Amino acid sequence: MGSDNLEKSKREKSSLYPPANIEDTYNFIQLVDKLGGKSVSYDTISSSMGVSDRTKSFLYRLSSAKQYGLITTGGRAVQLTELAKKILYPTENNKPSALLRECFDKPDLNAKLIERFSNKALPIKAQLSNILMNEYSIIKTAKDNAASCFIESADYLGYLKNGILTLNEECCDKDIEIDSSNEINKKFITEGTGETLCYNFQIPTLSGNSAKVQIPEDVSVKDLEFIEVYIQQMLPRFIANLKEEINKNNVLNKE
Questions:
Q1: What whole-number distance in Å separates Cα of residue 61 and Cα of residue 29?
Q2: Contact assessment for residue 24 and residue 64, using Cβ atoms and an 8 Å cutoff
Q3: Whole-Å CA distances, 49 to 66, 104, 219
Q4: Contact 64, 25 (CB under 8 A)
Q5: What confidence tens digit (pLDDT) does each residue in 177-193 have?
Q6: pLDDT per residue as tens digits for the range 53-110
Q7: How far apart are CA 62 and CA 19, in angstroms?
Q8: How does strand 185-191 pair with strand 160-161?
Q9: Measured between alpha carbons, how far is 81 from 31 in angstroms, rounded to an integer?
């Protein structure tokens, strides 16, 4: 009996949901585009991410990009859709932020949650994850990730206002700043008693500030390859820890 239950748990499958948030998915299609955008093999993409094509970090982004309508797959290769190309190469009539918002309700689960919670308070992660398990057939081991991805995507797109899920375009008072250019900027930064010339990469935030990555001018190609892999593997952990720290501080401030 115990063996039968074990086999059943191994075969347990979740209802389909986007296992990566829309920001990570956007970064994924940027990588696919960098690698050619058309018939890019799973192995080529995963190798560029510094992982195997069987790891969750790759498979989650692959699945989400398909559900958001940004890629098609076949023969273990990826091809960008026309929608993805419009996002990556915007024109005056096609703003990347508006097109990304169009992707949000494409996954079936997202569409159901949007219909249920639109203009209402979105449950906190712990509550939403339980709702997903009990009412939407998301398995226990996936429910937390499913809840996180929905909340993070809604927040990134500007649809969460004081905890209310609001998809009215006029309520998004700040557009998502998405830099699709390949422009490389240099600037001097102060280190100790002197100044060092660095390559400067800025990541806009919804609050209007910018996160910054600064790379020394004398960087080598091997250094850049190491930095790329390191960021892909370590930045998600850093962000997760930072979120936990901020949430703890918010709780303490309320007490």
A1: 9
A2: yes
A3: 18, 24, 20
A4: yes
A5: 555 544 445 444 444 44
A6: 999 999 999 999 999 999 999 999 999 999 999 999 988 777 788 889 999 999 999 9
A7: 9
A8: unpaired
A9: 14
For residue 20, which amino acid is it? A
In terms of Cβ atoms closer than 10 Å to its own Cβ (0-12, 13-18, 19+), residue 190 is: exposed
Q: How many residues does the chain have?
A: 255
Residue 85 has a pLDDT of 93
From CA 132, how far away is CA 140, in angstroms rounded? 9
Bridge partners (DSSP) of residue 14 are none
Number of H helices, E strands in the chain: 10, 8
Report the amino acid identity of residue 121: A
Laid out side by side, the sheet with 40-41 consists of: 40-41, 77-80, 71-74
